[in-house]
Amino acid sequence: MQGEILDGQVSFVQKMKIHRDHHDLLHQAEPLVDYFALKIIDKGHTIEAAKISFMDEIAANQRTTHRRITPLLSAFTHRNRFYLLFPWADGGSLFDLWENHDLYHDSTEHYPPWYSVQWMMDQCYYIADALVTVHGYDSREGGRSSEAQLHLDIKPENFVCFRKSQGGKVSYELKLTDFGLSKPFDRSSSIRPKQKAETKTYRPPERDLEGSTVDEPFDIWCLGCLFLDFITWAIEGWGGVECFRESRLLETDEIDVDPEFPPVLEDTFFKKRVQRGAWWWPRSVPRTIVADLKPSVISQFQHLRNHARCTEDLERFLSLVQSRMLLIDGSARAASNEVRDTLQAWKQSFKE
């Protein structure tokens, strides 16, 4: 085994090299692959809980296949530890890509050879089609799903970058990974899975509101947050992503949301408040907690639209995120196939 260890909530990933004479995984992975990602599930778990998590993640990976979903190559146990084997993403995560390829540091442009707005839009289309397949809709890219499921942990750390070389040109392909929190669901049923949100920053407002349910719009909100950060990086680079995060962090819930504890600094895209009626609103009526987009998020849309580097394509992408994805009312959000179809239409008629 070689390389770095990447920590997760209840697991960690080890980069490892397996000699080609000792495995037959090459037909499943990319050609000439030497390195693999070994996910080890045991951190913070009892053995029984780790086993359940292990089996659930295997099942989730088997429900959906897509060229932009990292395939599970093998799974095994050894000495009360549970292992999942995936292809190694040599470009790191999308978060790493944003941080390591700062497009505009030192007030100058630093475009890597593979970057263009069209590349970014293409990646977002394929990401959306992968999520469409996860949700059980028809894929446009050959994806297959045996059962609809929710991913429930969409964030830049869970999209990994595979380096591609064609005609001497290097680029990156993004693939969705980590189905550790994924749950199957039935659209015809009124019962929705209740799931603790591990996607802290990108979690939707319904996760914090009493009586709310987890549904497809959960993933759409998370994807909208990711798209807004992606657009921010495309226009302002890593510094813009960091500045946006810091502005969100400074905005807290209203002070009377929790009578027992003061509001804490938390990086989310929404904030909570007590819904107030007219001045005569009776004090005996139970308090209702509602959510709003943080002012910094609302301002970010306008800030990016007014930026000199905001192209016509990026402007309409911002409008999609603002009007169809980052909506407090989950029922008003677009379905994943609607988002995908919009991005596909742009992809086919793209102009920079």
Explain briefly what this protein structure is.
32% of the residues lie in helices and 18% in strands.
Written description of the protein model:
By secondary structure, the protein is of the alpha+beta class. It folds into 2 domains: 1-88, 2-Layer Sandwich (Phosphorylase Kinase, domain 1), CATH 3.30.200; 89-348, Transferase(Phosphotransferase) domain 1 (Transferase(Phosphotransferase), domain 1, Orthogonal Bundle), CATH 1.10.510. It contains 7 helices and 13 strands. It has helices at residues 47-63, 94-100, 117-134, 216-249, 295-305, 312-325, 336-348, and strands at residues 5-7, 11-17, 35-41, 64-65, 74-78, 81-87, 144-145, 149-150, 159-166, 169-176, 183-184, 270-274, 289-293. The strands form 5 sheets. The chain has a 5-stranded antiparallel beta sheet with strand order 1-2-3-6-5, covered by helices on one side. Helix 4 (216-249) packs across helix 6 (312-325). It is globular, with a radius of gyration of 21 Å. The termini are far apart. Residues 1-8 have low confidence and may be disordered.
